[in-house]
Amino acid sequence: MPAGASARSRARERNSVLGRPEFMSLNQPLRASGGSEGRGGSRRAGAVKHQPSEEASDAGSKDRRESSKMPEEDCMQLNPSFRGIAINSLLAIDICLSKRMGVCASTTSSWGGCRSIVNLLALTGHGITWIVGTIVCLTRSNTLAGQEVLVNLLLALLVDVMTVAGVQRLVKRKGPWEMSPGFLDCVAMDMYSFPAAHASRAAMVSKFLLSHLVLAVPLRILLVLWAFLVGLSRVLLGRHHLTDMVCGFALGLFHFSLMETVWLSSNTCQALISFSTLSWSPFF
C-alpha cells in the first residue's frame, strides 16, 4: 500500500502544471524584497497594460449612460421640429436682409454720403427730442384743450420710453452690425436692438396726432410717411433689424391704444400742471 501511494503521488507531481520548468518560479518561496518588488513591478506593469482597456470600457459605458439619460435632446438635435427650422430660417433671412439694407452703417458704405441726412431723420424720432419739444409746447400753451392733449402726449412718450427700455433689457438683442450706442441713445435708454425705439415712438406719435389734431389730407399722408421713414432710417444706419422695426411699429400702436384707454381728463391735467409748477393751492 505505501508503495502504491507513493506511485500515485509521483504520478500527480508529473501531471501537475506547477511541476513544469516554465512554472518553477511560482513554487519558490519569497526570499528577498528585490524579488517581491520584481514580481510586484511585473504585476503593476500588467495592471498598467490593462488600464487603457479599462479606461476605454469606462468611457464607453459612460457614453452609453449619457445617451440613455438624454434621448430627447439627441432627438431634437438630430431631428429638429418644423417650428424650429422655420424660426431659424426666418431669423437668418432677417439678419441677411438687415445687413444688406445697412447701406449707411458707416462712411465707407455704399450710401455713406447720405449718412448725415439719415441721422438727422432719425433724430426727429428720438425720445429726448419729442419729450423736450412737448414740454416746451406745454409751457407755451394757453388753452385747456391744448394742455390736455400735450399732457397725455407727454405721458405716452414716457410710457413708450420706459416700456421699450424694459423690453430691450429683457431681450438684449444686438443689432446687425453690433454698433455701440451713442450718447443720446444712452440717455434715452435705447441700448439694444429689439424692439426699435424710434419705430415705436414714431408710430405712437403719428397715430396720436392723427387722432387728436385736425390736419389736411396731404399733412396726414406726410405724417404717416415720416413715421415709416424714421423707422427705416435706423435699419439703414445698421442699428436695427427689419423685425425690430416691425415689432417697434406694433408696440407703438399698442401704446397709443393704452393711452386712449387711460386718457386723463382736463381737470386731472390741470392738477398735474399746477403740481409740477408748484402753484397748486388746494386749500385756498
Please provide a written account of the structure:
This protein has 13 helices and no strands. The protein has helices spanning 2-15, 24-27, 33-69, 71-78, 82-101, 115-123, 127-140, 144-171, 183-187, 197-212, 217-236, 242-261, 266-276. The longest helix has 37 residues, at 33-69.
List keywords for this structure.
single chain; 284 residues; mainly alpha; 0% strand; disordered C terminus
Model regions low in confidence, pLDDT < 50 over at least 5 residues: 32-52, 70-76, 280-284
Residue share in helix: over 70%
Major beta-sheet overview: none
Strand content: under 5%
- On the 0 to 100 scale, the average pLDDT is 80
Termini gap: 141 Å
SSE run: HHHHHHHHHHHHH
Shape: elongated
| Rg of Cα set | 41 Å
Number of strands: 0
Alpha plus pi helix count: 13
Class derived from helix and strand content = mainly alpha
Explain the layout of strands and helices.
Blueprint: H1 2-15, H2 24-27, H3 33-69, H4 71-78, H5 82-101, H6 115-123, H7 127-140, H8 144-171, H9 183-187, H10 197-212, H11 217-236, H12 242-261, H13 266-276
Helix pairs in contact: 6-11, 7-8, 8-10, 8-12, 8-13, 10-11, 10-12, 11-12
Describe this structure in a few short sentences:
With 284 residues, the chain is mainly α.
